[in-house]
Amino acid sequence: MSSALSRGARARPLCAIATTGLATSVGYAYITEWRTEQAENDRRSQQLPRQYERSSIENFWAGRPITVASRVMSIAHETLPLLYAYVRDFKLSPALGQIIGIPSDDPADLQKVHAAKLREALTRLGPAFVKVGQQLSIRPDLMPPLVLTELQKLCDNVQPVPEDIAMEVLKEDLGFETDAEVKVAFDDMKLVASASLVRKKLILTTACCNDMRDEYIDS
């Protein structure tokens, strides 16, 4: 086995060097993230800083290279197909149609399809990207009307956060340990809108219900 690897390395030295470097980098990244998780016994240090402080945010993510790489890959997985489809449908296909004399699809229909896919991709990527879509939805100087109409759905028609995730956020912010304690503290609790509205709702709920939480715990 070792002799075969040695022969392969001698036959393809550049490939062997690249493979070794990649394996070393991945291994180092996994060890770094594992050490970060093991060192964070303090509950507060396990959370991303909620106030903007560049050094704290940099330190938080510097210890999580695998998480960062995974996030970058998920962003690329959502955005690169959109970019390819845009170039294909709006640049290559019209040019090729002019050369060979084949009429291209209606640009308005293509815009609707691409705008819907863009909205869905931004939704899947999470709140930060939903916020980007919301900002673009009020910029007629940057986006065509059909795209603006589709992106405006991100302002008031985003799918709600799954209930299990919402419950975890409530338990963490309010200091509860079980879902039952949350449901006792809130009568007739219902999931409402999402995107920025949910964050404002959670902040307001947290601010208004600290006394309720303390009273519940004391009882």
Describe the fold and architecture.
With 219 residues, the protein is an all-alpha fold. It is built from twelve helices and no strands. Helix 1 packs across helix 2, helix 4 packs antiparallel against helix 5 and helix 5 packs parallel to helix 7. The protein is flat.
Summarize the helices and strands and which ones pair or pack.
Blueprint: H1 2-11, H2 13-39, H3 54-62, H4 65-100, H5 107-125, H6 127-136, H7 145-151, H8 153-156, H9 163-174, H10 179-185, H11 196-208, H12 210-218
Summarize the structure.
This protein is mostly helical.
Radius of gyration, in angstroms, nearest whole number: 25 Å
The number of helical runs is 12
What is the SS-derived class? mainly alpha
Strand content: under 5%
Q: Give the helix proportion (percent range).
A: over 70%
Number of strands: 0
Give the overall shape, derived from the CA principal axes: flat
Mean pLDDT: 76
Reported for the largest beta sheet, the result is:
none
Runs with pLDDT <50, length 5+? 197-213
For the record, give the distance between the C-alpha atoms at the N and C termini, rounded to a whole number. Answer: 68 Å
Order of helices and strands: HHHHHHHHHHHH
